[in-house]
Amino acid sequence: MADSLPGGIMSREAVLVVIIVGILLALGIVMLFSASAVTSERSARFADPYHFLKKQLVWSAVAAAGFLVAMRVPTRWWERGRWPLLAASVVLLCLVFVPGIGATINGARRWLKAGGFFMQPSEVAKLALAVFLCAHAAADPERVRSFWRGFAPMMGATLLVCGLVVVEPDIGTAAFIGVSGVVAMVVAGVRWAHLVPTCAFGAAAAAVLIFVRMDHFWRRLDDWWRGTGYQLNQSLIALGAGGWFGDGLGRGTQKLHYLPEVHSDFIYAVLGEEMGFVGTCGVLLLFAALGAVGWRIARRASTPFGFLLAFMVTFTIILQAAINVAVVTGVIPTKGIPLPFFSFGGSSLCLTMAGMGMLVRIANEGKRDGAIDDCLIDDWRQVRQPSIA
C-alpha cells in the first residue's frame, strides 16, 4: 500500500477537490463582501466597508495554511492521535465557561476570544469527534460490535461533546454533532440493538430539556410553523426578488438592514437576490460535485480509517450546507448553521478547510489501479457487515 502518489503528484480526485473548494472559497469571499460592505460602513462600531472582508481574508489565509498542512499529514497520524485530539476539543469546550477566556455574545458562551478574533470550539469538536469515531471503529472492527469496548466509548464521546455544546447553549450545533456521530457509528457497523435504544432515550431527554428550559426554541418553531418569523420572511423576499438571474452583484436591497445575520447564516439569501435562481443552483451543484468526489475518494480509500474519515468529512460538509439552505428557504425552522465557505467566521472556515485537506490526503493515499477495495478493506467489511444487516 503506497503512502502517496510518486513524485508528489496529486490524484485526479484530489485535483477535483482543490478546484471545487477553490471556486467555493472565491465565491464565498465575493458574496461576503457584497453582503457586508454597506452595513459595516454604516456601523458606528466599524465604520469601514472592508471590515468583514479583511477579517475573512485573514481567516482564509490561515485556513489555506491549515489545508496545506492537513494535506501533508499522513492519515495514520490522525488515527493514532484520536485521543489527544478529542481531549483537546473537550478542554476547549470547557474553556468557554471560564471568565476572562470565554466570550458571551447574545447570552451564549460559545467563543474563545484572543485579541480581536473569536474562535468557536464547537467547530473544532466536530472534526475531532469525527476523527475519534472513525479511528476507534477502524482500529478493531470486532470491537465495534461489542457494547463496552466499541459502542460505549463512541457514544460516550458523542454525548460528552453534545452535552458541553448544549450547555453553551447551542442546540442546533449539538443536534448536528449528534446526528453526525450516529451516522459515523452506523457506517462503522455498530449493532442496531445498541444504537436504537440509546438514541431513543437521548432524543426523549433532549425533548424534555428543550420543553423545560428552551422557551426560545418553541418560539422559533411556532414562528416557522405560522410563517410569521421576520428573518425568514425577509429571506424569502430576497430569494423571490432575485428571479432567474438576480439583480446583479452588489445590487441587492435586503442586505441593507432588512435581513438580519446577512453576512453569516443568511448569506445564501443574498446570493439568491443578486445572482438569482441560476446562481443558487450553481452553488448547490458545486456542493453536489464535492459530495460525489468525496464519496469516490472514500470508496477508493486504501484503509478502513481512510474510508470512514473521507465519508464523514464529506457527509458533514454536505449536511451542513443542506441544513443552511433548508433554513434560508424555510424548509426547516431557523437555526444558526453556517454555509460552508460562504458564511463569515474563521472557526468554521479553518476547520472546513482542514477537513478538505484530510480528504485530499486520503485521495492521494488511495488506490491507483482502478479497484475499489483492497484486501484490508475486504477483510474489514466482512467483519462489520453482519452488524449492520
Shape: globular
Total count of domains = 1
The overall strand count is 3
What is the count of DSSP helices, taking H or I runs of 4+ residues? 15
- Average pLDDT confidence is 83
Report the biggest beta sheet as strand number plus sense, adding barrel if it closes: 3 strands, antiparallel
Our measurement of the CA-to-CA distance between the termini, rounded to an integer number of angstroms, reads 30 Å
Query: What is the helix/strand order?
Result: HHHHEEEHHHHHHHHHHH
Helix share, percent: over 70%
Compact summary:
The protein is mostly helical and 389 residues long.
Describe this protein's structure.
A hairpin with a 2-residue loop joins strand 1 and strand 2. The protein contains 15 helices and 3 strands. With 389 residues, the protein is mainly α. Helix content is 70%, strand content 4%. The protein has a 3-stranded antiparallel sheet with strand order 1-2-3, covered by helices on one side. It has one domain (8-388). The chain starts with 11 loop residues before the first helix and ends with a helix. It has helices at residues 12-42, 51-72, 75-80, 82-95, 121-139, 141-144, 147-167, 171-188, 192-213, 215-226, 230-242, 267-299, 304-328, 346-365, 375-388, and strands at residues 102-105, 108-114, 117-119.
